[in-house]
Structures are given as C-alpha cells and as structure tokens.
Design goal:
Helix content is 28%, strand content 10%. A three-stranded mixed sheet has the order 1-3-2, with helices on one face. It has 130 residues and is α+β, with helices and mostly antiparallel strands. The longest helix is centred in the C-terminal third of the chain and has 13 residues, at 85-97.
Length: 130
C-alpha cells in the first residue's frame, strides 16, 4: 500500500506528457524578471541553435524559439509587422544595440547616413539628416 501511495503521489508531481516542444505559458512562479542572454535570429538560425540543444522536433512540430538555462533563442523582432507593438519596441532597441545612434538619424540600407539636400545651392549646407 505504501508503494502504491508513493507511485500515486509521484504521478501528481510529474507532467503526463513531458517534452521540450511546447507553447504552454509557464506557471506564475516561473514568470519573474531575469537577466538572460538573448539571441535574436532568423528562422534558419533558430532551427540550428535549438536543434543543437534539443534535437530535431517531432513530426508536426516547428521550433519558433527555445531556451536553455539563461539563454533565450528568439525570432528577430524586426521580422514582425510594426502593428505588433512589442516587436516594434524590441526592433527599435535592437537597432540601437546594432549601432543605430540615440539621435535616431536616417540611414540607408547599408547603414550610411542619409544626407539632407543642398539648401540654396550651398554645398556647405549638406549635412547628415537627424
């Protein structure tokens, strides 16, 4: 009887289906602030990084993100539409982490400052946009 009671209590503590592939929201005790290393990546890099940690996902599952210890591997927020306010916020801050200055100047696709047009034909007035 004691072994049966122990077995029954163990089944309450262990999840019925334990897998690293889940989109479940964690219990409140695990939703606290933390200092983490965040890797923002393309889908191809997410697949490679997460598979290196957990192996290939089961058939029918797709790895959108993963975590191990204090390392999070997440999609690059700049790939989400601007209508997603949280992704927009993260994309903005990621730009600063990648060298976009706090003055928020205009830059072309190569990261070069966009120059303002020459005013009144005076070449001295050409300056980077701010």
């Amino acid at each position: 009887m004691t072994a049966l009671a122990l077995l029954a209590s163990a089944s309450i503590l262990l999840p019925a289906h334990s897998t690293p592939y889940s989109d479940a929201r964690p219990p409140a005790v695990f939703q606290k602030d933390a200092t983490v290393t965040l890797q923002l990546s393309s889908q191809a890099r997410i697949d490679a990084s997460c598979q290196a940690m957990f192996g290939k996902p089961p058939s029918g599952f797709r790895t959108n993100a993963c975590a191990s210890g204090h390392r999070l591997v997440m999609p690059n927020p700049c790939s989400y539409p601007d209508s997603d306010a949280y992704a927009h916020l993260l994309c903005h801050e990621l730009g600063h982490a990648n060298g976009w200055p706090p003055t928020h100047g205009d830059f072309d696709a190569d990261g070069e400052p966009v120059k303002m047009p020459i005013a009144n034909g005076d070449p001295k007035s050409e300056r980077p946009a701010t």
